[in-house]
Amino acid sequence: MRNFINYDDSLNILSSIDFKGKAKEKLFLTNSIGRTLARDIIANDHSPKYKTSGMDGYAIKAEDQNLKKLTIIDKNPAGEVVESKVTTGVCIKTFTGSLMPEGSDTLIPIENVTVEDDKIIINKEVPFKFAVRDIGENYKKDEILIKKGTKIGFAEIGVLASLNISQVEVYAKPIVSIASTGSEILDLGEEQENDAQIRSSNHLTVEALAKTAGAQTIQMGVVKDDMDSITELLQSALEKSDIIVTTGGVSVGDYDFVQDVVKEKIGAEVLFHGVKIKPGMHILVAKKDNKLIISLPGFAYSSTVCAILYLLPMIYKFENSEKKLPIVKAEITENFPQKMAKTIFTACNVFYEDGKYKIDFSGKKQGTSAILTNMLGSPALLIQKENGTDLKQGDMVDILLLNELN
Ligand SMILES: Nc1nc2c(c(=O)[nH]1)N[C@H]1C(S)=C(S)[C@@H](COP(=O)(O)OP(=O)(O)OC[C@H]3O[C@@H](n4cnc5c(N)ncnc54)[C@H](O)[C@@H]3O)O[C@H]1N2
Ligand code: MOO
């Protein structure tokens, strides 16, 4: 008899997995968007390195403003280093982004002066250090600017560019191979020969999810339910991938060969087979040579929910990313019973109203775990805990936002 573990225990087992020697790669900065940084980014200098003007005006000594009139001795455009120095009674015309000339401590903006020949008349004084950007205003040398594990977004790209880092070290994406097993299932475009055949959706749904999470995928298609084909499939997938996902063939039927192949033919170490969840109770997770095999049940809704719950966090983990499944609180707008003592994931509609998420079940079909169309629209999964009780209208519940997966 299979030993069904509870959901939290299954997550704990997976959280202890260590994809040893996680691969890293170097990418050109512009190709690194969305990837996870594999090392801390440390400032190699102060920014700005020198005092810099923050406005267009005249570099002066603040104390000279009481002289009311100063002589312009030079012009200091941005991008050039001016030789002249500011001494008592003189000023240098200086622009936004120019270095402050030696001897100056303050920038008086052009709006505050009148120019007469080679002189400025000070109409309105400014305080000491006005419009001068201090050394290290942006950051100081040796400051950790971006932590390892950060997802690279627009701000990270800008900061990396300002440091002249053209190649960034990121964690490699895992290679995820996907196949659906079943003698009744047909791949896209394959000709139907009898009424008992159905179109496979699982291999493509799981691939889409893996890609959404940033994995590289190898689509292995549809495989017949026989020991040899499944053994060959898994052996070949193990050679070229970090994570292998199969769907179908893990329950108790005569043709449920995936479990036999995983356990007996390829000698993988089973981490768990059977979790007290609905859907997906027959999920099998095994390890072989530091590679993970995730065998999901065949039903379309089951395999999709399980791919979200188990595959996505493993992809995040492989990439050393801080990403998490988007689980938030929502108000349930109708009574909803706890149908069984399992962790249950039910498709619902989510909307945002009165400053909070709310859910209902309008238009959602009831039936087996085959109903994938329940995940269309603006969907979420209501999460009911194994030891939970019937939910009442107005209760705050946990939901997983399906359109926020990344
Ligand atoms: N006597 C029992 N029967 C079943 C049990 C059980 O405990 N005792 N568990 C049920 C549950 S729950 C599930 S889930 C399924 C899981 O079965 P398998 O993982 O072995 O999956 P299959 O039997 O291969 O397929 C189930 C169902 O899904 C359809 N299917 C299969 N592959 C695909 C695909 N790629 N795309 C779309 N649909 C697919 C298949 O035609 C079947 O209808 O077992 C229950 N039975
Ligand atoms: O546990 Mo099965 O996956 O309900 O449908």
Descriptive notes:
With 406 residues, the chain is α/β, with parallel strands linked by helices. It has 4 domains: 7-23 and 173-318, MoaB/Mog-like domain (Molybdenum Cofactor Biosythetic Enzyme, Chain A); 28-46 and 137-171, Molybdopterin biosynthesis moea protein, domain 2, CATH 3.90.105; 52-133, Beta Complex (Molybdopterin biosynthesis moeA protein, domain 3), CATH 2.170.190.11; 327-404, Beta Barrel (Beta-clip). It contains 6 helices and 26 strands. The strands form 7 sheets. The chain has a 6-stranded mixed β-sheet, with no helix packed on it. A 6-stranded mixed β-sheet has the order 16-13-17-21-20-18, sandwiched between helices. Strands 22-24-23-25-26 form a 5-stranded mixed beta barrel. Helix 3 (202-212) runs parallel beside helix 6 (300-318). The two termini are 37 Å apart. It binds ligand LQZAQKY5 and molybdate ion. Ligand LQZAQKY5 is lined by residues 180, 182, 184-185, 198, 200-203, 247-253, 256, 279, 281-282, 297-300, 302, 369-370. It holds the Pfam family MoCF_biosynth. Belongs to the MoeA family. It catalyses: adenylyl-molybdopterin + molybdate = Mo-molybdopterin + AMP + H(+).
